[in-house]
Amino acid sequence: MDNWARFRSATAALDTGGAIWHLKGQPDMFKGIELAADLRRQHLTITAPAAGWRGTFAPDVVHLDSLDGRTTEKRHAPRSAYEGHTQMTPWDRLHALYFTGYALWTYLTIPFLYTLPGFQTEELPEWNENGEVWRRLKVTFPDSIASHSREQISYFGEDGLLRRHDYTVDVMGGAQGANYASDYREVRGVMVPMSRRVYAYDEAGRKVDEPLLVSIDFRKIVFAQ
After folding, report:
1. Most buried residue, 65, 91, 97, 122, by most Cβ within 10 Å?
2. In whole angstroms, how large is the CA radius of gyration of the chain?
3. Which domain holds residue 144?
């Protein structure tokens, strides 16, 4: 925690993929992107150099700007734009930006995020998966943090590293996600998963192998003071 507290920002280069982007009508929108995140407040900028745009996320507003400065799209109170959505409802680019912005910011800051004021945690019974025993932590998010859902569950291996992260996605009509973290790399004393794979899960909490809903592959992550 003392080490993490030294950092104020993060930058990264990454690719995202998976079936969800085709379902939502935004295939390849987040391939070859770069991000810059504020670790102290929920704010994140995504740049797609090849596609020529830059998007900015905050809980109360998102906007997309062309890199040549010619066009701008903006949406205030972006979460309200998902009212009535189901898993099959197509998204526009601002829908996709809000979802991706809060998701990536959350993934970059877990588990340190859970120590902030307003978060409530409760340890659940242990879980067996992949021949390991994982400890589970149910986390209730405060209203001030935009995320998939108010209640989420994180699974930790015997080495203390995050293995899996479960949630329902409110902006997709309550779709379920089991987010697996792997390929850990040490970045300035912080163990960071460079790969994430998101699947659905069944009523027993077991992963549904097909389809792969979301893939996230970080090529580089840098923490700065």
Report:
1. 97
2. 17
3. 4-224
Q: Quick one: which of 127, 152, 150, 141 has its CA closest to 206?
A: 127
The pLDDT assigned to 70 comes to 86
Evaluate if pTM is beyond 0.85. yes
CA 96 vs. chain centroid, Å, equals 12
Find tokens 């996605």 and name the residue.
Answer: 169
Q: Are strands 61-66 and 53-58 parallel, antiparallel or unpaired?
A: antiparallel
Beta bridge partners of 61: 58, 76
Look at the chain and report how many structural domains it folds into: 1
What single-letter DSSP state applies at residue 189?
T
d(CA 196, CA 214): 8
Q: Is there a cis peptide before residue 211, judged by omega within 30 degrees of 0?
A: yes
**CATH code for position 187:** 2.50.20
Q: Tens of pLDDT along 161-172?
A: 999 999 999 999
Residue type, 218: F
How far is the C-alpha of 203 from the C-alpha of 14, rounded, in Å? Answer: 32
Judge contact between 47 and 100, C-beta under 8 A.
Answer: no
